[in-house]
Amino acid sequence: MSSISSLVLSSPSAASSTSPDASPSDTAAPLPLAQAQSWASKSLEISTKALTDLEADVKKRESWFGFLSRRKKEKAAQEGEADELGECAKVWAVGMFNLGVILEMQNDFKAAQSHFASALAKSKEIGLAEGVAEAEDALARVRMRIMRGVVLPPPSSNGGSPSL
After folding, report:
1. Full residue range of the structural domain in which residue 62 is found
2. 3-class DSSP assignment, residue 103
3. Distance in angstroms (rounded) separating the CA atoms of residues 108 and 68
4. Cα–Cα distance for residue pair 116/104, rounded to 1 Å
5. What is the pTM for the complete model shown?
């Protein structure tokens, strides 16, 4: 699962600009954790709204034009068209996972656990195998840290990932 948190720690060329339009090559400084959290939160906010709006639209269309709507879905599936609802759900699951990773990095393991559990549930719902695997691994890791009382060191300023 692609993760904005990887920009925080592993990429020496990660964007540190406050502009969401900045590309990773705009600067060599690592992305501050607070900014990564802000971007991930905004991603989740946007995908939640899009998902909610699309779900309402689909329900409305199905209630008004039930048969026609089902036929349109079947035709789209046959023609290989992307399912907007499925794409929004994937973005939502990834956003929820990303926030979980950031919360884990901030030692907020209970909140991270909640985010990973939500990402896992949505990934299972939409059949996102990579999301299921990543969220299950993250949940196991966070549960172990909660049980052992492990606290992560703050991210290093040199862009490397913390040793666990």
Report:
1. 32-148
2. helix
3. 48
4. 10
5. 0.66
